Amino acid sequence: MKVIEKIREATAANDSRAVFSFEFFPPKTEDGVDNLFERMERMVAHNPSFCDITWGAGGSTADLTLEIANRMQNMVCVETMMHLTCTNMPVEKIDHALETIKSNGIQNVLALRGDPPHGQDKFVQVEGGFACALDLVKHIRSKYGDYFGITVAGYPEGHPDVIQDGVAPPEAYQNDLAYLKRKVDAGADLIVTQLFYDTDIFLKFVNDCRQIGITVPIVPGIMPINNFKGFLRMTGFCKTKIPPEIMAALEPIKDNEEAVRAYGIHLGTEMCKKIMASGIRTLHLYTLNMEKSALAILMNLGLVEESKIARPLPWRRPANVFRVKENVRPIFWANRPKSYISRTVGWDQYPHGRWGDSRNASYGALSDYQFLRPRSRDKKLHEEWAVPLKNVEDIYEKFMKFCLGKLRTSPWTELDGLQPETKIITEQLGNINLKGFLTINSQPAVNGAKSDSPSVGWGGPGGYVYQKAYLEFFCSPEKLNALVDKCKIFQSLTYMAVNKEGTWKSNINNTDVNAVTWGVFPAKEIIQPTVVDPQSFMVWKDEAFEIWSRGWAKLYPEDDPSRKLLEEVQSKYYLVSLVDNDYVHGDLFAVFKDI
Ligand code: FAD
Q1: Pocket of ligand 1, beta carbon within 6 A
Q2: Alpha helices, DSSP H only, in 107-256?
């Protein structure tokens, strides 16, 4: 979706809250990229309207920026705006970048001229290339029509090139404004500004823009001060005016990083309050890839709450323009959403988001990608799971500890720790794991909880959510037989079980689809975002079993006895999916008594 549409929607809703966005830059190392994505996951949970990724000066990060943009839009599932500069860029390279993001379902570009690459102080136009952002905007509109939302840069103090002795001469400032209008007239639908620390200058700039007929939203770029030296470097580079009171406040604390950061949060909050008081409802935070200050400012403004992370659905809906209508998923990948997305990436049919249409499409084959983890995560997993295992009881204990929140990682999850709803049943889960029912997925029964409940809610306020109790686990054939016998007594239970070879046991038909999560909202059809179905279960089982070897056993050296033990379990155990259909009175854990 275009960012401008999101902003218009928010404005039309007459919501007094502001919408906000975060900007990131491509880190220099692989570890840095891993860390950025972990941080981004946490920040995106607070529902920014969009996030930006910058384009390194002179196209120096082109490939990385394209890859990060793709992952942001399709894996992190946040609306992504990619910066694109035309400095040192032949038109073919620009088109390659635009075609790439288009095919990845990204609809937003921040079109820029760019600065000269390091070592050069003048911008050099590539032969046959573009001279300025205006050329780039015209090109995007003429070649890609209406597909992209185009944002351009605005400079409240004038572009640094025209600033002399701290200010832009009035004529140069007016020329800059007139040029900005040309960028908008050529097809830009949004302006994001250069950083500033004098809010009055920003407000005057907005007013000046309106005076000359620029009507598109102007989003203030806020850069929280994180440390004194960085602040001086950045403001020096951009020739940003520093109001004397800010310098006076920073000077005595400049060597105390904690105090500088706290002041930066205070200043950022006050600037945003003043901007919002003038009626502007959009904020863009230059995060410099750090999360604390940006989130603290938004918390001070009441735009995010630490404890309340709103979920539009139980899973994060992809931002990709081609699959925004997707609204049903099998529960099996609940803890591995990225794997699910990558295995369904070839599905081009989400016409009405109905499960029935997409069910016929084939899942992508298992690839190494499914078992690749960010390095930091791999390290944690190694620490927590690659310990000597003497017998199966040691394995049971690992699963139990994860369910009790004593371990942060599990080979079967891409997420960090347990989901809030799992904590409701953590003790029961711990107990059955110790008995040898090794759980990898679960949800408690819910019979009409408010849709903004912090633990089980989704879909925003005003509705009610429901779900059937669900458990998914590995267990030995003996335990499975005992469970199957008990299921004859507990008639509200339906199950499917399969081992690695595909031997199948179940008390449902293989075409049955069971909705296990649904919600009732004002003026909407019933939404049922999560289902249990045998066809996807058979696809999921390959991945679930493969994790025993590629996700866990592989953490040990080749002939290690622990590795052998894990491979033995993998070859003997069953994967079981168990639903209690009585979401009103059922007690799913009762079936495990005396087994
Ligand atoms: P332009 O809009 O082309 O304008 C540059 C200056 O030249 C202005 O003063 C303008 O008035 C003048 N000018 C240009 N053409 C004309 C003309 N025909 N007539 C009159 N005046 C003209 N840089 C990166 O390398 N990567 C990034 O990801 C990046 N992201 C940025 C994000 C934001 C929000 C901002 C504000 C800047 C960003 N920059 C980035 C920096 C930016 O590339 C530089 O500021 C660059 O010097 C100008 O780019 P621009 O798109 O504003 O240029």
Answers
A1: 54-55, 57, 83, 85, 110, 112-115, 132-134, 153, 159, 161-162, 175-176, 179, 192, 194, 221
A2: 133-144, 170-185, 199-211, 228-238, 244-250
Measured by CA distance, the residue closest to atom 17 of ligand 1 is 179
Catalytic residue among 23, 384, 421, 472: 23
pLDDT digits (tens, 9 = 90+) for 513-550: 999 999 999 999 999 999 999 999 999 999 999 999 99
| One-letter-per-residue 3-state SS of 518-539 | EEECCCCCCEEEEEECHHHHHH
> Could you tell me the domains of the chain?
3-300 (3.20.20.220), 321-592 (no CATH)
Sign of the torsion angle spanned by Cα atoms 455, 334, 373, 440: positive
Rounded to two decimals, what is the model's pTM?
0.88
Q: Using N-to-C axis directions, what is the helix angle for 30-44 and 375-385, rounded to 10°? A: 90
Instruction: Quick: pLDDT tens for 561-579.
Output: 999 999 999 999 999 999 9
User: Considering only CA atoms, which residue is closest to atom 41 of ligand 1?
Assistant: 114
Written as six digits, the tokens of 292 are 């604390």
Q: Would you call 79 a catalytic residue per the annotation?
A: no
**How far is the centre of ligand 1, averaged over its atoms, from the C-alpha of 561 (Å)?**
61
Q: What is the pLDDT of residues 415-459, one digit of tens each?
A: 888 888 898 999 999 999 999 999 999 999 999 999 999 889 998
